[in-house]
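Re: your question about Secologanin synthase

S., sorry for the slow reply, the queue was backed up all week. Below is exactly what I fed in.
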Amino acid sequence: MGRASSKLPSFCLSRVATRVRVRSPPVGSNPVPAVAADAEKVDGGSEVTAERRRVMVAVDSSTEAKSALLWALSHALQSNDCLVLLKVSKPASKQGGDQSPWERDPKSYEVLQSMKTICQSKRPESTGRSWGIRQSGSAGAREESESESREVGVWLVKWNEGLVEGSDSCETVDGLVEQSRSAWLVLLREFRYGYLTFSRSAVRALLLGKMVETSRQLAPNGDWSLEALWAAQANLTQQIEGLAVEFFQVVVELYLVEGKDLGPTIVEEARKQGVSLLVLGQKKRSITWRLLMIWAGGNRLASVKVLGFLKKSWWDPIRITKMMEAQGIRGPAYKFFHGSTAEASKLLVDSMAKSVELSHDILPKVQPHIHSWIKQYGRNVLTWHGLRPTLVIGEAELVKEILNDKNGVYPKGETPKFFKKLLGDGVAMAKGEKWARQRKLTAQAFRADCLKGMITGIVAAVESILTKWDELDGKEVDLFKEFSILTSEVISKSAFGSSYSEGKIIFTKIDQLAAIVAKNSQTVQLPFLRKFMQNRDDIESSRIEEDIRESIFKIVKKREERKEKGEIDGYGDDLLGLLMSAHHEIDKEGKITMEDVIDECKTFYFGGQETTASMLSWTSLLLASNEDWQERARLEVMEIFGGRSPTSEDTASISKLKTMTMIMNESMRLYPPVLNIMRTVSRNSILGNKLVVPKGMGIHISPTIIHQDRKIWGDDVHLFKPERFANGVAAAMAGKAAGGGSGTAFFPFGAGPRFCIGQGLAMVEAKVALAMILQRYKLRLSPSYIHSPIYRITIRPQRGLQVLLQKL
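Result:
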């Protein structure tokens, strides 16, 4: 049928039923029965009815419907086909029940007339045949247009005139039928290329009346029974249809159908009329929509997934946005399907390209999108990370409720794919029972007695750095690089029994992977495309992850070899030893897999190096730019330790470094080592007795927002003032944070049950390192230093931390 190779325009073509067209019999032959005696066979079996093939086009005023009709006229219709133009209108209201459909819906009449004109211009041999007016679900024609009935009457008058002219030869019913047929033949030839419209039901009614009237004129004394006239009329109608097919190769039928639902009404009408082909106009879909349909294919389960995706990407954003706005929570507009990440990415890129003056108001620099949204929408902001709604929390009392999470409503959410590669499913990312088991296991490596034993290793690592600095007196040093090496050495020695040189490849690869994580923090991908379309970062991160795994596995195998040789008792009592002992545990409840061992190692390699290096760097910046506090800290160190280095017996002495603690707390307030804390809402709940939050919503807590809140810390919130913590953290918070107490307005290591497990080691390491540096050197900020803090999971100096060393 048609030219299969032709390019289809923007509409949908689907098959409803299948029939084989059989040519109409020649003029003068007997009517074709419903099933021919010598019917053709299809596929070796089924009989084929000798009916005209019907092609239906659903029309309206759109350009897509016009394109569909043009395609049907040029590609689908063949000789003797019947083209059905169907227009669906809304059901009549009670007030308009007495009006005809054309009076109720004149626009539909105009649409059908315009489509009829297109048919006439494109296929001159086509002819209109009937007007059908239906309501959805009705069995047949309901009402005839008065204008069409009058038109039928005109044609019947012409037919009657032709009949009367030959009345002399019409003495019987058969003669009347033959004469009527001849009259119609003349009439059809006369208007062969006209656009004849007649209604079958109107013809049946008016034809009978005309035949009765004619019979009285021709044979007033004849025996004309009503039954004979009906039989004659039926025979005549069949023969007239045959003549119409002979002279008008394509027949057009126009239908106006009333129905509430467009799609079901069209399909139902097509089924009733037994159409062979249904052509529907369809708007051109976007590439995203086409990919969705290709992905779904004919799979019902996939179709359900597509509907679920549409719900999440269209309906849920509308519903949740309205729900939150009703509670006074607003935010940036949702954009399909990126959410608000496109706006955030632009602000982050612009921020990274700029340096700022030496100011500690870092929120506009490290999180410019959050800073902008809070200024515009308020302390609590509704954002969208792709399809997922996320509530940015800016109130201390809400932070306290979420992080304490006494009822288990705000657990850790799903780990993003790049974070999964960086930290795996270690204690920082695990959830539920696994997190509880891993937390209990790893906490043993950071008990107070274990920290005491780590001091010797920390001092040795600092001594190594200071020895190298002996040759750099008066010269510039990038302290961020130096502290990165120092903290790498400390975590390697204290947690894994190795060294920085042995684990250097791990730290290098972790730093590369962290850069990819930060780069893709605002990237959103369609879930089903990830499996088939990997970008450069996907491929590179997978390669780096595999390199990290191999390097950690070598360290694990080395520890096993040492145990087998008897060089150590068991697997050791450091973090790696505890993990390996749990891996070889006989009890299944306490046993962990090798994947768990590697994931925990990745977590502590990253956390033990990155967060502590960041904390030491920003504290050194503040000391170098505030010489008075640097001198006060030095005096305290000299008073407690003199010129000697701390030892493992100095645990109590280290805890007496009050001024150092104040300085470090203020440093972490201004430059928190953890920039983002993410949670999810596990069930519909009420937050802070005022906000209704739906299940599945993300929770984003940024310590920087709370740490630099003027309502909590005062107008000098952006100034370095360690005296805030002169009486401890709890006293600094008393009466300021709306939630009251510690852990609400100051939480550099998190709060609640998931606070940072390495907090104790980080504080001891930082105090020992700074104490030993201040004993020997005076720090001055280099003129070449450019203040540009950036987000890289933690906050780090984008261009390093250049400091001039002056030996004491």
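The chain has 29 helices and 19 strands. The chain has three domains: 1-19+53-125+250-284, 146-248, 341-807.

Happy to talk it through on Thursday.
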